[in-house]
Amino acid sequence: MRIIGGTAKGHAIKAPKGVDTRPTLDRVRESVFNVLANRGIFGTDVLDIFSGTGAVAIEALSRGAAHAVAVDFKTGKLILENAKHCRVDDRLEIIPRKLSQLKNYIVGRQFDYIFSDPPYENGFIQDTIDLVVTYDLLKPEGVLLLEHHKDELFSLPESWECIKEQKFGYTMVSYFVNTAERS
């Protein structure tokens, strides 16, 4: 795995051993960041939930995000090691907690981009949506990006709209905005 663009382009990052973590594929990350480049990544605040290797947060920082938060209760040390290797650790905050333990760390904060890539088909996509909506974590022009199994079911509040979907085999990346915040 490598960082694809920006100041850390080409830097290899480590993945945890075993099958507990399923890192976002380079081609998926490249496609996602091509979409975000059109919206603007420079100076943004990014939240990466189920961060795993930290690749998405590190990629965002490499491409000019001002600050990123990486959340993963198992891989915090690995994320820090990868961030230091890519020289973005000064702008990365790591929260080594489960999604259910996140409330105290994020209440009152908002992000331009929220990315979540949880284990597939375990209900974590819906849990992520509920967390984002309940604590108003997305800035008015922000985007919630969910990587999920193509057959996974979840629901969003009425004011939320899917603005883009990308399919990579059985993997989907869905982009959502809160239309109530944009008007």
TrEMBL record:
Keywords: Methyltransferase, Transferase. InterPro entries: DNA_methylase_N6_adenine_CS, RNA_MeTrfase_RsmD, SAM-dependent_MTases_sf. It holds the Pfam family Cons_hypoth95. SUPFAM superfamilies: S-adenosyl-L-methionine-dependent methyltransferases. Gene3D superfamilies: Vaccinia Virus protein VP39. It comes from the Bacteria. PANTHER family: METHYLTRANSFERASE. This is 16S rRNA (Guanine(966)-N(2))-methyltransferase RsmD. It comes from Veillonella rogosae JCM 15642.
